[in-house]
Amino acid sequence: MRRIALFMALAFVAPAMAQSTKSRLEGLEQRLGQLEEVMKGQALVEMSQRVDQLERELRELRGEVDALVQANAALKKQQLDIAADLEPRLAAIEARERAAAEAEAAAQAAAPAGQGASTPVEGSAMEPGAAAADTGGKSPELRYGEAFDALKAGKYPEAIAGMQEFLTLHPNHPLADNAQYWLGQTYYVTRDYERAIAAFAAVGVRPTDLAKTPDALLKKGLSEIELKRPDAARATLADLVNRFPNSDAARTARERLQSLR
Q: What CA–CA distance (Å, rounded) separates 91 from 198?
């Protein structure tokens, strides 16, 4: 009887134990599946964060590229503006040079024998004493034109040297103020803003010609802006507006003053 009772008890217990083991296995499988889902979710989060980081870096690189493109376009525009401004000026200079040479040749041909070419031609653009001070036999206009040619061709070191030499040899020539302005402009184009400021500040000091003074003041102010000197820039641009209120340079200066406030 006892054996029968034990057998019957085992008959009931064994299925229960099997069912419990099966439930535990199913529970373990379920937990393992949940853990895998969590791990997948974490991997997706990390991947998403990495994608976001790469997108930010890409946007930053695109911004840098755009800034470089804009800076390059601005530099090209400055060069084109310089070339457009130089063309008529250089043509006028060459015309004056040819006229002066023709007048001098005519005067020499008409002069009495023995008078020679030392007699200055009335109305010549060369200032008194320039021939004695100059070297190489070049007239002031020719020297100025050569510096202009270098500037037009983008040969900035040569243009700077030419303008400096012209100003040294012909400080009182009618073209001296223009040479001073273009010296500053060459420094400005090459982003040598310290020297540009000094060169532009000297425009208008000579009593020969004040035509370039408004533009020189504007470029001096813009150079000061580039060097992060807003107070100096405001003072320069305000001086421009006060002294030359109807000039094109003054209109640009007013716009820049608004942005500096």
A: 28
